[in-house]
Design a protein that fits this description.
InterPro entries: PDZ (IPR001478), PDZ_6 (IPR041489), PDZ_sf (IPR036034), Pept_M50_Zn (IPR004387), Peptidase_M50 (IPR008915). It comes from Metaplanococcus flavidus. Belongs to the peptidase M50B family. This protein is of the alpha+beta class. Helix content is about 40%, strand content about 25%. It has nine helices and 18 strands. The strands form six sheets. Strands 3-4-7-6-5 form a five-stranded mixed beta barrel. It has a four-stranded antiparallel beta sheet with strand order 12-11-13-14. It is elongated. The chain starts with a helix and ends with a helix.
């Protein structure tokens, strides 16, 4: 149950902040947001506030912000349609009823002659006395069909009507908020747990390792490698990992005295590839530093950003196979393992996942945020947008391929963890 709760909280936070980015920038651009959804599939819970419905849906595989002006969003009144209209005290149509199942007092029935519900906002039609009537439509009018109400979206409140810059930032804001969330998670770890000093102090020397054979001990402070000053554990790692098989001179401070060692790093298989190691472990002491916590948050965010990009490059160049990818099942099982090591390890895992989600969404693949941003870049270069039907077809094919990839990855996870 703890794993389930952890997974729901982490997944919910990542998706919520991603969609919150889209939502905030859409609102700032004046776009009408019809729905803010966490999850996909059938609706479990829905709360309407203002012109937006906030929903939680059944399948934990994503979320979305549905903005006015999308292909299935348009409301068109064809000539010959019989509609009902409610008019306010100013004579503006405030509600348009597309069926007569609901009975309202003072309803005006019209047979539509002509209508524009996006630009000029009017309806022309014949009333029950066969008189031609023209009504202006309120900007916040509601269209009701089969008991379901939809707020009208004038053209200037639709996504496609906004400037290229506003549209670009509305889409880019989703991944951006994932990076911001990661920064705050890592900063919170620094505030609550303390900031690692990152001093190159050995915590443990592994058995039968080059370091043990040379005489290194726990508590040794490594000060130099090959005459180069070492001030952090990261500098030590950088000095060793590319030197497998090459003897290196180490200077170590022990009990106030300097001790010299000559150690040859050995090759070790790591997730990021084969690297040189000398067989020492490290657990950095931590100190409370309010402002340093935010520096730590930024540095850790940048570190994982670079690391995920590097691993992605290895996948593209074939150094990883598709079996190395994980879907929801794999993430759930990893969350189960990570949760065993405590809340701070779980928070670090959530921060890394948030960065990963942001980067994956920025890839220039159809149906992802990066794919949409790619079309905006093309629009900027061409001076005009790509044909919407062609773009829609590209995104549709992309969605199908992504769904296929998700099925393959999920099946691999099931095989890996349960069989």
């Amino acid at each position: 149950m703890e794993t389930v709760i952890s997974f729901i909280i982490i997944f919910g936070a990542l998706v919520f902040f991603h969609e919150l980015g889209h939502f905030i920038f859409a609102k700032r651009a004046g776009i009408l947001v019809r729905e803010f959804a966490i999850g996909m599939g059938p609706k479990i819970l829905g709360i309407t506030k203002g012109e937006t419905i906030y929903t939680i849906r059944l399948l934990p595989i994503g979320g979305y912000v549905r903005m006015a002006g999308e292909e299935m969003d348009r409301i068109i009144l064809q000539a010959g349609h019989r509609i009902g209209v409610l008019v306010d005290e100013k004579g503006l149509a405030k509600k348009i009823i597309l069926n007569q199942k609901t009975i309202y007092p003072d309803i005006l029935f019209l047979e539509v002659e002509d209508a524009d519900l996006e630009k000029e906002l009017y309806i022309k039609g014949y009333d029950e006395e066969d008189q031609l009537v023209r009504l202006d439509v309120a900007r916040d009018a509601v269209v009701e069909e089969n008991g379901r109400e939809t707020v009208l979206a004038p053209q200037d409140r639709q996504f496609d009507s906004k400037s290229l810059g506003h549209r670009f930032m509305t889409i880019f804001a989703g991944p951006l908020f994932n990076f911001i969330l990661a920064f705050f998670i890592f900063s919170a770890i620094g505030l609550l747990q303390g900031v690692p000093t990152n001093e190159p102090i050995i915590t443990e020397v592994t058995d039968d390792s080059p370091a043990q054979e040379a005489g290194m001990e726990a508590g040794d402070l490594i000060t130099q490698v090959e005459g180069n000053t070492i001030t952090s554990w990261n500098e030590l790692v950088d000095s060793v990992q590319d030197q497998a098989g090459n003897p290196l001179d180490f200077s170590v401070e022990r009990d106030g005295e300097t001790v010299e060692f000559n150690i040859t790093p050995e090759l070790s298989e790591q997730p990021q590839g084969d690297v040189g190691v000398i067989g020492v472990l490290y657990e950095s002491p931590r100190e409370q530093d309010f402002f340093g916590s935010f520096v730590y948050g930024a540095e850790t965010t940048v570190f994982w950003f670079k690391e995920i990009f590097r691993l992605l490059g290895m996948l593209v160049t074939g150094q990883f196979t598709i079996d190395a990818l994980s879907g929801p099942v794999g993430i759930y099982k990893t969350t189960e393992e990570v949760a065993k090591y405590g809340i701070f390890t779980l928070m670090s895992w959530a921060g890394m996942l948030s960065i990963n989600l942001g980067i994956m969404n920025l890839l220039p693949l159809p149906a992802l945020d990066g794919g949409r941003l790619m079309f905006f870049v093309l629009e900027g270069l061409r001076g005009k947008p790509v044909d919407r039907q062609k773009e829609g077809m590209v995104h549709f094919v992309g969605i199908m391929l992504l769904m296929l990839l998700m099925i393959v990855v999920t099946w691999n996870d099931i095989q890996k963890f349960f069989f």
